[in-house]
Amino acid sequence: MSNASVPIEELATERFFRDFDAADVAKLAPHSRLISYAEGTTIFRASGPADRFYLVRTGRVALFLPSLQEDVIVQTLGPGEALGFSWLAPPHLWRFSATATSDIELIEFDAAALRQAAIVDRQLHDLLMTRMFDVVARRLEATRMQLLDIYADQRPT
Amino acid sequence: MTSTVTTPTVLGPMVPVPYRVARIHWELSDTYTLTLTPESGATMAFEPGQVAMIYILGAGEVPISVSSSSRRDDAIQLTIRAGGYVTKAAARLTAGDTVGIRGPFGVPWPLEQARGGDVVVVAGGIGLAPLRSVIYEILDDRHAFENVSVAYGSRDPGFLLYEVELHEWRSRFDLDVEITVDRAPTSWRGDVGLVTDLLPRMDFDPSNATAMICGPEIMMKFVARGLADLGVDRERIYLTMERNMKCAIGLCGHCQLGPQFLCKDGPVFPLPVVEPLMEIEEL
User: Fold this and answer.
1) Contact, A38 vs A100, CB < 8 A?
2) N or C: which end of chain A has fewer CB within 10 A?
């Protein structure tokens, strides 16, 4: 695990930054680093401080809801996908837990630094919020589809 | 006086042909596969995606897509979810019972068109059944296609149709099979989420890919949109529709979807034909 920032040109290839120009990516790069976890590692726990934001580089991450009976996976995330949006708004606590379901590589961002960068730079703020809104909207859409239980009443084919 | 009995050599499309139940295999708690062999003569020749009308004596007739290989067997297989009166009656059949079969009917999957390019098969729930015959066909002629990807979505790990085959397909080096479920305990090692989330992870070239989709309509709509967003030509995105088929020969109109009759114009359609119809309420 390195503390070195992820190079700008490498960050720019991430799907999350597809609408960002190089100058905007450069503002975020100093707050990033590449990390890896072995399969089975807990990345964060529900109710813990949401002080990081991640992009999945390789492998799979399971988001799950801890339960007294049986933990339930609500979504798995793969390469190119954003992990975590609880860092965006108070109280900055994770709503779900996340575990590596394979060996993984993540790009990790310091959430407080991202928020600060967005406060002082309106354009960066708008770009980040637009991208994060897209992530949240897609998760909401997926959740609604899952709630519909669409496979339950399929007619015979 | 001698009576003459004339045996028709060609039965009309409305006349069921007797088939015997060779086997009933329960795939899931509510879904089973009937293996049927003709009581006489040759097994119905069909192409993947085509529909057979199965008549259960004393109960009624329902349309079911053939789920077996069109090349491999002397029998046909129909995978059925026990959801209604007829399909529940069919679930009580045992080996040796007789059913009536009409067909095949309808337009098959565009396998000829797909040759030489990549193929993306996307199935949801029991929608894997009409696509299993496509996968068999591709595997039997694997060199004729480039990258082949299968994305399958289901409710939970206990509702995976054809689990044995899914394992077998996943172990092949010439087939990319991704599976996702709507919910799962943490013991599940696969994906959780929408089948559409699998699409960007799959290895296919949108410029030459043909996509075949079967599942709940809302799922097909989202998958088709996702594939089009990835650059797949809308004319090469195919989906299979379901409506209440009765005569199966384009006369009764029960399966009418706007200007289309599913039994003769479908059930497999290119996206541009059905996309506007899927937006119309109660159609």
Assistant:
1) yes
2) N
